[in-house]
Amino acid sequence: MKKTIEQAIDRNAERFKQISAYIGANPELGNEEFLAARKLTDELEFHGFQVERGTIGLETAFIASYDSGKPGPVVAFLSEYDALPELGHACGHHLICMMSIGAAVGLKAVVDEAGGSIRVYGTPAEETKGAKVPMAAEGLFDDVDFALMAHPFYVYERSGSSLAMDALQFDFFGRAAHAAASPHDGINALDAVLQLFGAINALRQQLHDDVRIHGIVTEGGKAANIIPDHATAQFYVRAATRQRTDETVRKVLKCAEGAALQTGCTWKVSNYEYSYDELMTNETLSAVYERNLLAMGIAPDQIEFGKDHGSLDLGNVSRRCPTIHPFVKVVDEPHNLHTREFRDLAMEERALDAMIFTAKTLAFTAYDVIAEPGVLQAIRDEFAAKRQNG
């Protein structure tokens, strides 16, 4: 069976590489990935998948499905394809999408015999307003038995964790006045923003080590001789768990309330991006993936423990179905994500070869779970226990 999977992926490897290179050379921002979505959905249809475009009203989202007609689990491969402003595909999403599609095509070669069904979820805008959040909220993963994806990096890492996150915007409203002629008539909204930053900086001393709060001023006034009547700041508030993130947000809101009271401003808070939950790795599924990675020739000492790399909209999926998100080595030099150096190296043949290698590893992992009912049950049991424990 695995030989058949490998042959199916190898047979299409050059097609997959060409599509990945095309997407890499034509970067599109989140929810604007029209070229990428068209390329990916056309390719899935070419391989016999039924494709739904514009999922939940998002123009560049899609779900591609193939059902064997036999009993078995629903396997989900997640595809990302948005780029970063100015940096292009410096996070390697042009590789991620074809890792998942390659894995789906490989698994399809045996699923008629093995049983079950395959879905590829096209999930736009991972870097900003991650589509996995509303897709999860709509219940699109609730009947999935397990979900897989892999992320390019400069080392191999087990599926680890991520930080839950809230994206908060604070708007303060004061009263404009001439800063020299009648400052006593003004209420300075920018002062409220500055007080907020000061209060948050003081708050950091009493926070847990896993908490991260970072922000910017997006509006601070129009001219130096006019007391600002409106000022805005945006913050990410992150922590290792949703519970701790919520606790921290409540403290940050108190800081904003205090800033408004001190300056005489009114204020409001809103979410300018979706809230992300932490990634809940399914360790049983992760162990199956690692077993295949070892079988593919990666030495145990080359596979590092999973780390926290920030926040992922995949965290919301992991609360709905068993999920893994390992990191895979696609470049030979230690360059970090979101850099021009990583972007350029991730377009080279070495990275494209690693993409094909990872597609095989993901497909082998999915096949093992289908073929070993006891493993699938263990995955389900772990997922149920973690959900029950919060």
Automatic annotation (TrEMBL):
Residues 170-259 form the Peptidase M20 dimerisation domain. It comes from the Bacteria. One of its GO terms (molecular function) is para-aminobenzoyl-glutamate hydrolase activity. The keyword Membrane does not apply. InterPro entries: Amidohydrolase, Bact_exopeptidase_dim_dom, Peptidase_M20, Peptidase_M20/M20A_hydrolases, Peptidase_M20_dimer, Xaa-Arg_dipeptidase. Keywords: Hydrolase. The keyword Hydrolase applies. Pfam families: M20_dimer (PF07687), Peptidase_M20 (PF01546). GO terms for cellular component: cytoplasm. GO terms for biological process: folic acid catabolic process. Coiled coil: none annotated. Belongs to the peptidase M20A family. This is Peptidase M20 domain-containing protein 2.
